[in-house]
Amino acid sequence: MARLHAACIRPGHQPAGGILQANLLDNCFYKNYNGVSMTQQSNSYIPSYLNAEDPGPWGIFLQQVDRVEPYLGELGKWVGTLKHPEKILVVDVPVRLDDGSIAHFEGYRVQHSLNCGPGKGGIRYHQDVTLSEVMALSAWMSIKTAVVGLPYGGAKGGIRFNPRDYSKSEVERITRRYINEISDFIGVEKDIPGPDVNTNAQTMAWMMDTYSMNAGKDCPGIVTGKPIAIGGSLGRVEATGRGVFIVGAAAAQDAGLDLCGARICIQGFGNVGSTAARLFTEAGARVIAVQDHTGSVYNPDGLQIDALIEHVAAHGGVAGKPNVQNISNDEFWEVQSDILIPAALEGQIHQGNAGRIRTRIIVEGANGPTTPEADDILANSGIIIVPDVLANAGGVTVSYFEWVQNSANFYWSEEEINQRLETIMDNAYKTLSATASEHRVTLRTAAFITACTRILQVRELRGLYP
């Protein structure tokens, strides 16, 4: 049973998308709300505090689980475990702003599954963060860690605000207050946050310091993605993008695609997209189109990636880059390529644009970038999709390395990190490829078959208490 531990929703403040139904809102102001009932909708369980008509990203995850249930055999009796997050925390984050006023922000932390180990998952800062989104992201983390065989469960967090609208000192105060509010919920052996959208190494440093001050001792393992100086791991900054490259190269080899001269399109040019772009370019591929929140740029002969990275650092986005062709965001999806890498936010490839995509392989650098409807359209078009739960698992894999190094107080070289990462990612891809061939399913379905089987096997072995 999911528990909404603290719904600190301010009177008159409705979370985006109607996350909490009116009857719950009427009863949970500034109270702990336990024992939330679950309702069954179309064979999928929708928590009563979500809009059952529009469960958002959580609904997408439920559809993905429904699709693999026929492959789970006797373990199917435990499938409800996957459809019910173990714990949900919603907190109010009151902060004094630079002008002296008091602002309130809505924060979340969801632990989807702790069957296989402590929760693991990032914390994102975004004005459109919703509970449905965080629930889905925590569930995808459960799948992701199981796919690559890490001893973790799935968790995720977020604060509903746009950090670009606030000063650095305000963001720091928001960060510290949020961690203070969730400090009893997380722990080095219970739930380990990390960076996500609009959070970085500095954010993790503030989080680690706040938690450590409350604990009265240094706790470097409470978060991953920290600066190297305070226990971060070498190779972590590039890990997600490097993982995208590793499995993208493996998928290309399986498809008989030579990376030398291959055309790459990338949506999202932050840490993940830019790292993948550089590594594919070093392998001889041409990155011909890039899109981010500022616009889309195109060069059929290949973009100069180092120059584009410098331009983004100086101007905040790809728009305005000289000596390239500017195209519309809609045109970006129609650029003919060999590999397309969505590395931005979820839901970017949907029923409305999937039919226009012309590529051979999609490698999902972002979490949940493709809707189930789009999945079907792309599969019918013969496009191979390397799913997010494998493709972007490089980040959580090296986060695991960081956590292990913090626990042992013994640190590895970057070469060791990259070698270990390549071994884990390559083995995971081979497992999914073999499962896909065995069951004649897509790589995404193979990933869910593999992960759900592993999670539910552990659930069955552990049994229920009491």
From TrEMBL:
InterPro entries named among the record's database cross-references: Aminoacid_DH-like_N_sf, Glu/Leu/Phe/Val/Trp_DH, Glu/Leu/Phe/Val/Trp_DH_C, Glu/Leu/Phe/Val/Trp_DH_dimer, Glu/Leu/Phe/Val_DH_AS, Glu_DH, NAD(P)-bd_dom_sf, NAD_bind_Glu_DH
Protein family per UniProt: Belongs to the Glu/Leu/Phe/Val dehydrogenases family.
Binding site for NAD(+): 240, 271
Keyword Oxidoreductase: yes
Recorded GO MF terms: glutamate dehydrogenase (NAD+) activity; glutamate dehydrogenase (NADP+) activity; nucleotide binding
Stated name of the protein: Glutamate dehydrogenase
Active-site residues annotated for this sequence: 156
Sorted UniProt keywords: NAD, Nucleotide-binding, Oxidoreductase
Location of the Glutamate/phenylalanine/leucine/valine/L-tryptophan dehydrogenase C-terminal domain: 233-463
One GO term (biological process): L-glutamate catabolic process
Signal sequence residues: none
Site annotation Important for catalysis: residues: 196
Alphabetized Pfam families for the sequence: ELFV_dehydrog, ELFV_dehydrog_N
Catalytic activity: L-glutamate + NADP(+) + H2O = 2-oxoglutarate + NH4(+) + NADPH + H(+)
Domain of life where this protein originates: Bacteria
Residue sites binding substrate per the record: 120, 144, 399
